[in-house]
Amino acid sequence: MIKDIRFSACENSSFVKTKRMSYTQQGRAKVWDMVEVHDSVAILIYHTEKKAFVLVKQFRPPVFLKNDDGFTHELCAGIVDKECSLEQIAKEEVDEECGYNIPLEKIERISSFYTSVGFAGSKQNLYYCEVDESMKEHDGGGIEVEEIEVVYLDVDEAEAFVLDESKAKTPGMMYAMMWWFQTRSKK
Predict the structure, then answer these.
(1) What is the full DSSP assignment across 37-86?
(2) Considering only Cβ atoms within 10 Å of each terminal Cβ, which end of the chain, N or C, has fewer?
(3) Is residue 167 part of a domain?
(4) Which tens digits make up the pLDDT trace of 137-167?
């Protein structure tokens, strides 16, 4: 349960830096306010035995401001905040959030794209992997203060889920599932 909500100015953050950009475009002076944030990785995980996607459900305060619930269904994901390969970060996130130990060579790159282009312009690097119960090492749930629920979405329910506007979800997850249905479900 979420309670005791308070707001304050964000004056010093390791994750978000506010900036104002002044520039000239076609002879006209312009100003744009933005935030500088880390890029990220996101991983579409398909559980071969359950025939389900492995998603995470978690509370997101900015979403709470829009829908009074704040819980989102997302791909397993994390920020790029250390010096190692994106695949290594993806592997670590799958372990931390979902509890699966994925061999590095089994993590497949799908694509990358920019998110929040109007105010952040961060790049998300999208990956895919498959898991089964032999790879499960713990329950997942994230680290430290994260409270992440692992959710299994049956592949037969995924297309309807993507179109269900009553469930908060990310466009990256929707794109990844469309990619899967176009490239993997036909195999």
Answers:
(1) E--EEEEEEEETTTTEEEEEEEE-HHHHHHHS--EEEE-EEEE--SSS-H
(2) N
(3) yes
(4) 999 988 877 789 999 999 999 999 999 999 9
